[in-house]
Design brief:
There is one protein chain. By secondary structure, the chain is an alpha+beta fold. It is built from three helices and eleven strands. The strands form two sheets. Strands 4-5-6-10-9-8-7 form a seven-stranded antiparallel sheet. The chain has a four-stranded antiparallel sheet with strand order 1-2-3-11. Mean pLDDT is about 85; it is low at about 1-25.
Length: about 150
């Protein structure tokens, strides 16, 4: 019973956050602030056009290519990193023979069929986005990142 209530509350929160999207030049978006250990907060805005959904959790964003349900898996995840983890991941990314520097960050083979995209904001906020290899650049384009005021 507690699990069901928790699942329903989590779904309600996710749907509420997705419903908080704003119309921006005809685009459906949703935004949230993610805290980092460095006390920097990142504002993440996600493009939801085309039936996409988003779930914000402290330090992470889960992106879905359709409505969020218990049986649908997210297609991408954005997480904030501390500086040491970012530096370790960047070293791994640069060692990947298929890495590509673009869009202000580095794309690299993350895990099997998944690609990772590492970026930093003003040397104080660190982000990793993971998604399917074929979709990674289109997924990254759905995210707008900035340091919170």
């Amino acid at each position: 019973m507690k699990r069901t209530i928790c699942a329903l509350l989590a779904a309600l929160i996710a749907l509420s956050l997705a419903a908080c999207g704003t119309a921006n030049s005809g685009k459906q978006t949703a935004s949230a602030y993610l805290d980092q250990e460095s006390d920097a907060a990142i504002e993440v805005t996600v493009d939801l056009n085309g039936g996409w959904s988003v779930e914000f959790v402290r330090g992470a964003v889960y992106l879905y290519d359709r409505e969020i349900t218990e049986t649908n898996d997210g297609v991408a995840m954005l997480v904030t990193l501390d500086k040491e983890v970012y530096e370790e991941d960047l070293e791994t990314a640069m060692a990947d023979e298929n890495h590509k520097e673009a869009d202000g960050g580095v794309y690299y083979t993350y895990n099997g069929d998944e690609m990772g995209y590492l970026t930093l904001l003003n040397d104080s906020a660190y982000v990793l986005i993971t998604a399917n290899k074929a979709d990674i650049e289109a997924i990254v384009a759905r995210f707008t990142l900035s340091l919170a005021d």
